[in-house]
Amino acid sequence: MDAFADKLGRVGAWCGQNKYLNAIKNGFQNFMPATISGAVGVLWTNVLVNSSTGLGAIWKPIMALEVLNPIFAAMQYATISCITIGVTMLVASEIAEANGETGAYPAVLGFILWMMVTPTSFAAKDLGASYIDAKGISHGFSLGQFINVTGEAAKHKITADSFSYSGIMSSYTGATGLFTGLIVAIVGMELYNMFRKNDALKIKMPEQVPPGVARAFEVLIPTCLTAIVVGAVGLVCQLATGAELNALIYNVIQKPLQNIIGNNLVAVCIMYVIIMLFWCVGIHGNNMVAAVKEPIFRPLLYANTAAYTAHHEIPYVMNLTMIQMFAEFGGSGVTIGLVIAILIFSKREDNRTIAGISIVPGL
Fold it and tell me: What's the whole-model pTM score?
């Protein structure tokens, strides 16, 4: 048993010191205020001030506040629907800080690198709309089905493919693009750090030049080279597979992990057994697995939020808040139940003393 505890302790120590796991964990933790703010937006527009799905259906006076709904809808979109942008910037900042960088520029560079592998031009004909009939069957349509080019436009070979628009789709800024953001932030910052530490790539400015301007020129070549490498990876992926990088990562890494672990009761139980084993040797189990748990289960939570907001069926039973509620309520392993059981049934004074001390933190 001592040997097992020693090995588990070594694993825990490695996890606690790993730069990448710490960056992912801290990135999600730092984004938490935005997540909670977005949840308030969902609560307001869907549960409170909503005449079909919320309190407004049974208490009409609250609908007087409907004029404020755009504020909360925008708050939800800017946080939960844009989690990839925020987490990518935060993780990039954490990696850069671990590499000795300071300031806000690495976070900005992380966003730039993510944008370079994110599609921004789309065919308008692919825009879709759907409705659910009385039998609960969903019917989908694309705009291309309704585009009929005639007259002068047809003479000049204008077709449905000619119509396009630019922007960033919410499927990339939301939970679907999360793994891409994490990978780009980590790999991009390591490339940037490698180029940054090469003195031959630094543009030295005279001492008379203000420090801010001198630093900007110092990181100019490393920034340019990092962007070129990341952009080249995205292009090679597109040419080799026919799919852009985000789709490839989602289909090859994120989606399989979510199917194997995220929506699987047995896998969730195994994960919490591992968490408890860490606790047994005095290591904070949740912190140890947070870097793995968050990228898998948080996107499932946001997928549920998006489905609820769109009045669709909730797709995932297992998600971040569900497992937190049923596996971490009152402390990892639902230890609040153990504390209450000790206070009610235990006759040992030492156990009752520990339970008495633990009841307030548990609550």
Answer: 0.79
